[in-house]
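User: I'm curious whether this sequence folds into something compact or stays loose and floppy. Could you predict its structure so I can see for myself?
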Amino acid sequence: MKLRYSPTSPYVRKVVVLALETGLDGRIERIPTAAAPTRPSPEISAENPLAKVPSLTTDDGQHLYDSPVICEYLDSLHDGAKAFPPPGPIRWTALRQQALADGMLDAALLIRYEMGRPADRQWADWSAGQKRKMTQGLDALEAEASRLGDAVTIGTIAIGCTLGYLDFRFAADDWRKGRPNLAAWYEKFGARPSMVATQPKDPA
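Assistant: Here's the prediction. I'll summarize afterward.
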């Protein structure tokens, strides 16, 4: 399998964390791919018409995107504990948590893109609206942090990668302030080998 990736993408990180947790990482060749919205990549566009990473090419040549689909596909390839629980309340909780975490990331990236525009073209109300989504998401996670426990599901993986991205790109906002339960959970989850091995960093 071949995974097009960026080392700073939290969505890619989610895929790689799941691959590490399930023992599949050794079966995946990682292909560095630039995929900025304003600089389209012909290579990624040929495999993913949305021109985004992550994009996975399976061993039989099928192209899969984006991270929720790739993660569920990878989870079907192993016989260990599943990151996607079977149908039932636990599954719906995990999928909801993934949707919340991914939505927070979407908002965070939209803020980043807005900050990259010329100062006289930035829309403060737009960024404030995205920041509000992030704040509301963090507050919702704080409310259920005591129930996250030690489970490794697609939900907790997505949450962990989202909080890691906020540390990486929005450290000044200090998401831990006023959220002691979520901070305590992340301190433990973030120490997992899969999380330590995938900490985002800008290219040298």
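Summary: The CA atoms of residues 156 and 182 lie 11 Å apart. The chain has a mean pLDDT of 95.
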